[in-house]
Amino acid sequence: MSHPKFTKLIDYEALKEQYGESDPSITQKELEKSSSGHFSQDHADPNALSFSSDNLKSDQGLTGTRLRSYAFAVLTRKEYSKADLIEKLAMYAQSRDEVIELVNELARENYQSDLRVAEMMLRSQVRKGKGPNRIKLALRSKSLDKTLIQDDLNEIDWYEQAYQLKIKKYGVKVEKDQKLKAKQIRFLQYRGFEMDVIMKAISRKEDEE
């Protein structure tokens, strides 16, 4: 449905101050808060948690058993996407190629899982009232393929999500004033909802299903 009075392009930087939110891409803190930690201490090397800053910042860098132990230490604290784990380990490793080989092995053994990270991010973003466009943006920021959770995205009732978000902020009244309606549209666009869903949500009457 086309609504020429309202722009379809979203200036996130301009809107984030208006709605008091952080950058639209998922932040490291959001991921840490939502992570419950897939790994237990049983999976890690006995020395995995013994790393100090001095050990990690050696001139030679980590390799072999020490690199593997550090990888487990990292993964016991929280989940990482494959891309983020590679960058994390490469900061302290002697060889980036060894890091990539190790991370690929950890992924094959299911110690690291992009699917788990994507599912975790989806749950976190939905709880925060984010729509599909913001969720896809968050996934892209972690180099995660949206197809990992495409089925989950398709199963969510985005219309209901948008409507509940609208009434929480603006109430159940169907706004007729064009300026106030435009404000609601911009808000839901910023949250990541599609225009057709937005128009249905802001036009829905209280007694409608």
Automatic annotation (TrEMBL):
It is found in: Cytoplasm. Gene3D superfamilies: Winged helix-like DNA-binding domain superfamily/Winged helix DNA-binding domain. The keyword Cell membrane does not apply. Residues 29-45 have a biased composition (Basic and acidic residues). Residues 19-52 are annotated as: Disordered. Residues 156-202 form the RecX third three-helical domain. Residues 113-151 form the RecX second three-helical domain. The keyword Cytoplasm applies. Modulates RecA activity. HAMAP family: RecX. Belongs to the RecX family. This is Regulatory protein RecX. The gene is recX.
